[in-house]
Amino acid sequence: MSEKTEQQPLSQFTEKAYLDYSMYVILDRALPHIGDGLKPVQRRIIYAMSELGLSSSAKFKKSARTVGDVIGKFHPHGDTAAYEAMVLLSQSFTTRYPLIEGQGNWGSVDDPKSFAAMRYTECRLSAYAKNLLQELGQGTVDWGSNFDGTLLEPLLLPARLPNLLLNGASGIAVGMATDIPSHNLKEVVTACIKLLDEPKTTLEDLYKIIPGPDYPTEAEIITPVEDLKNIYQTGKGSIRMRATYTVEDGEIIILALPHQTPSSKILEQVAAQMDAKKLPMIVDLRDESDEENPTRLVLVPKSNRIDKDAVMNHLFATTDLQKNYRVNMNIIGLNGKPQVRDIKSVLKEWLNFRTETVKRRLQYRLDWVLDRLHILEGLMAIYLNIDEVIHIIRNEDEPKKVLQKKFKLSIIQVEAILEIRLRQLAKLEEIKIQEEQGKLDSERKDLETTLSSKARLKTLIKNELKADIDIYGDDRKSPIVSRDDASAFDETELISSDPVTVILSKRGWVRAAKGHDVEAEKLNYREGDEFFASAKGRNNQNAVFLDSKGKAYTLPCHSLPSARGQGEPLTGKLNAESGETFAGVVSGSLDSKVVLATNAGYGFVARLGDLQTKNKSGKAALRVPEGAKVLPPQLIASVDAKIAAITNIGKLLVFPISELPELSRGKGNKIIGIPKAKFESGEEFLKFIAVIEEGSSIKLINGKTHYSPKTKDLENFLSSRGKRGLSLPPGYRNLDEIEVTSKNVIEDSEE
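^ thats the sequence. predicted structure below, dont judge the formating
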């Protein structure tokens, strides 16, 4: 005899199994219901605690007892998951309106998961939880069997308030998620009343009542108004929060952090920037948080001159002092299906739920009143015929049937009569029944009128909502303000502007010394190497190097090795072509001007910012004619400066710097007249160029002798750009070196 087996394709089986699991996760684990705003585990925790008698006025009981009831009776999952859900419902810094009141260690703002084990903590329901439970036994919700069919549990809790929006919710299901921010009770309930009075209320009107979420933190919501409106219109978007701070005695005091942001993480992030020297203006960091001040982080600036707002603006951009929170109002509606809803549809659907709940509560009460009046009617009948009733009870074998037939009573009335105690047959009881009949009849009329009138029903719901505002309402915690976008410091802003001298050796080794009073020639150099060129600048500026091909390279001054050592080769920092050497170095602000020239007698004025590049391979700047060499670049401090050009045969030409064109790159114009044939033969070439500022002096050095022409003497050599120039005095026509002495050229240019 063969057994009958069911067969189906594997694809069909797996598809059904996956879909069943997906729907289970969505409906029974991850997403909240619009009615009570709870996920199943939260609902079961609240119901189990109410069954244990753990009201807000009861004594605290061990959390382990509650968890045991939850997982043993209603939620057959891990105790850890159930307990963590309990903890979240109790944390005032996590849940806007906590549903559980805890005793013991239930975590802290700094570390929400630092709560003690459930065997150590105690709990009870909060006063706010009453709005979820007080109508539970009044026929307001449907009930279903628990996981093993031995008990009944409510499928929803009869929430008197829109708990979904008040406490928010978050969860991840299969193929979908939800992130609903918390809101202020006064605002949300006022909006509900507005919709009851004016069902056609627009989203714009609702936004005037609910300007945005309200998290359990005093940090600012800085999301633009239009973005907030869009979130409420679409049900999706992002909320931006920013920490609040004040300045006390020159110190920055952070008073509130964005929602679910531990202070330990902020301290870690700021300390990491301090260690990386990205916050040189902050010298100390302290955590002064205590019970009275849950959040108090202290940043100590380097000096009072530091712009505190700029520092915080940088930290907002680079740390969790500013955070974004996703909004996805994906909710299980009254139809049992998940859907992303806008704020108006959420409120309207909850009001439909509330209206139906109130109707069921009133109808339940009306049914009870009618049943009681029916019983009281029967009781009055026996009081009018008490002797006959006693006779029937004493003598008849089936008194129920006889009483029912004799006095035209229902079986319910007969049962109530037979359960009467002898002492209830007194005349006083008859009077009490008549009084009860009168009260119940009045209540019946009121209930029937309310149930039959939409206006009276709305008024009742409105009055109950207003009463709950008085009980549970509070002021907004998270202010909504308009702020500019945060931006991190530019790297150069984080670096001190201390003066430095960049030193380049003949073999291309570079280093930087602090200050401008540096005797670079006297520093130690590697064997076979010596001083070549230097440039005065600042630590937060760049140094521009020019190679023998006319390419410009850029390195930040603060990145250069210290002059205490012998430096590092530029070839290790830059990708110069093989065999190329460096012709000079210059440094200054981006708007500084510099003269670039070759010994062919051509050159131009360039803006230092135009020469800079992040490319390690450099950028083309000075076009070098065939056979020509690049001369060291010369910094210009003022537009009134003059250029002194000296050839190898002792020709000197001085002309205004304004006659030289300003270019970003190229060959430039003729500086001094050198016959082409003589240059090509090597007979004559431009040997030195110098920038002479007002009040500066020039020293011409030939061996051990030197000559410093006076201002009047230099005027003899003054002419137009491109001229041949005049010969220097005999003995100074084959110069070894020239020096220009100026006063505070770099400092003045910085001003």
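The domain at 244-320 is CATH 3.30.1360.40 (Gyrase A; domain 2).
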